[in-house]
Amino acid sequence: MRMNTPLPPTGIDDDSRLSDFLARHGGAAALAPRRGESSDGLEGWSEIYAADGSVLRCDWVRQGGRTEMRYEEHSPREVPPEA
Prior knowledge:
single chain; mainly beta; 1 helix; about 35% strand; disordered N terminus
């Protein structure tokens, strides 16, 4: 997966889910958002980090003219440590 690629038009960046997530978890963390996408641009992911250590992840897939997204929230104790 490539890193730092643009999000699809319906990704986390323009969703009210992001505002709600950050409001519930103390605002944004100092950590920059991460994202990646397949080389063909048909699937990818993005993660936003909150001040309390929680993570909002969006996995997306483009099929035909549709983009499907799945959101997951992880509390700090659920987030695996970086390798």
